Amino acid sequence: RPADPLVARLVDVRNVFDARVVALDGGMRALEWQGRLLEAMVPSHFATGDRVGWCIPMAGVRLKRRDRAAEPDRENPVDGQVSECVTLGEDTTLALRVDGLAAPLWLRLSTHIAERDAIRVGTALRVCLLAEALHVMPWRDAPAE
Q1: Angle 141-57-54 (CA atoms, 0-180°, nearest 5)?
Q2: What is the dihedral of CA 24, 36, 71, 44, to 10 degrees?
Q3: Where are the beta strands (DSSP E) in the chain?
Q4: Which pTM was predicted?
Q5: For 19-42, how does the pLDDT look when each residue is reduced to its tens digit (9 = 90+)?
Q6: Lower CB count within 10 Å: N or C terminus of the chain?
Q7: Strand pairing partners for 30?
Q8: With contact defined as beta carbons under 8 Å apart, do 104 and 95 qualify?
């Protein structure tokens, strides 16, 4: 739970982005991120329209199983294409290029899943950003990774 994007980067959180707080029907609030609505626990001290930072650990970015329907209200589905794939023993780290983003979205999965699903550079994937893992923080301009 870093205090701001700079701290997040200092502690090596790779998935750090900015968004705007938006109001939804029924008084709920969410984040507008690159044209997508993300469900998140938005602290009450942020007002609708505020620019905020948000981060998510790689463990909160989950590969979407092809055989299950998305639950957009919980899972925040995002589509992209693998731009980097690094295997180190039992873990494979992926960089996912998402339309409209300069920086990739990073995730880690077990190597046997990457091999089973033939995931490599160029593979199109759908991932889910778990709402409970998404951390909202005050925005302060932070140097890009």
Answers
A1: 35
A2: -40
A3: 16-23, 29-33, 36-38, 51-55, 61-63, 77-88, 91-97, 105-110, 124-129, 135-138
A4: 0.82
A5: 999 987 766 789 999 889 998 888
A6: N
A7: 22
A8: yes
